[in-house]
Amino acid sequence: MQIDLLIFDCDGVLINSEPIASRTLAKALQDAGATVTAEEVLVRFTGNSESAIRRICTEEYGVEDLDSVFSAWHEDIFPEFARSLEPMPGIEKLVRSLPQRKCVASNSTTERLSKSLGLLSLWHDFAPFVFSADRVARPKPAPDLFHFCTETFSADPADCVVIDDSAHGITGARAAGMRAIGFVDPADPRPGRARILEEAGAVLVATGARELGEALASLQAAQVAEA
Ligand SMILES: [Mg+2]
């Protein structure tokens, strides 16, 4: 038995988008009257789907006119992606060295994926298998998007490995019967990320692309030994 399919989260794993997303969302929220910093936005919103972000904006920050906030945010975020978005350090080289089948499973909208990952050459390492939660009924932490991946590839969940930087992604992978590696950005300002991902059910946690390569190699070796 081999690892057959690698399912990558996008934001915070393939692309270094979270600092840009947080900075621009904080500005849109501040302009709508909310008291919030970019760092608070990064801590509270990262890894959530757009529908969850909308709910948090209203319930926790008292912002009612969400359409204005989101249109102001999108007016800012997409040009900012075009200007300064980078892949996560070392991830391109790693992705290209991995022999398994691969896809992307992201809570981001289809529009945001094409205007972020779509700007980078990494897109071509995955296209057309770049899947947004738009395609399924429920975003992560539901397993729906991971089921969509296995259906598309006719893959067995037991042979899939998910790489995700949010507890939602790890939880969804477990619910879909898959193993998950938690990914931690070495530059992430949020404390305790490894522990949060382990508690969500990650079999391994990797900090940075080099450790991710090692984690995948050790899972592959364990799987070959079991077979
Ligand atoms: Mg993510």
Key features of this structure:
single chain; 227 residues; alpha/beta; Rossmann fold; DNA polymerase, domain 1; 11 helices; binds magnesium ion
Describe the fold and architecture:
- Helix content is 50%, strand content 12%.
- With 227 residues, the protein is α/β, with parallel strands linked by helices.
- The protein has two domains: 5-16 and 86-226, Rossmann fold (3-Layer(aba) Sandwich); 18-84, DNA polymerase, domain 1, CATH 1.10.150.
- It has a six-stranded parallel beta sheet with strand order 3-2-1-4-5-6, with helices on both faces.
- Helix 1 (18-31) packs antiparallel against helix 4 (66-84) and helix 9 (167-175) runs parallel beside helix 10 (193-200).
- The longest helix has 19 residues, at 66-84.
- The N and C termini lie close together (6 Å).
- The model has no long low-confidence stretch (mean pLDDT 94).
- The structure holds magnesium ion.
- Magnesium ion is lined by residues 9, 11-13, 47, 165-166.
- Residues 9, 11-13, 47, 165-166 line the site of magnesium ion (MG).
Structure in a nutshell:
The chain is α/β, with parallel strands linked by helices and 227 residues long.
- Spatial shape: globular
How many E strands? 6
CATH class of the largest domain: Alpha Beta
Mean pLDDT: 94
Oligomer kind: single chain
The domain count comes to: 2
First-to-last CA distance: 6 Å
- Can you tell me the CATH topology of the largest domain? Rossmann fold
The distinct ligands, each listed once, are:
magnesium ion
CATH superfamily of the largest domain: HAD superfamily/HAD-like
Low-confidence stretches: none
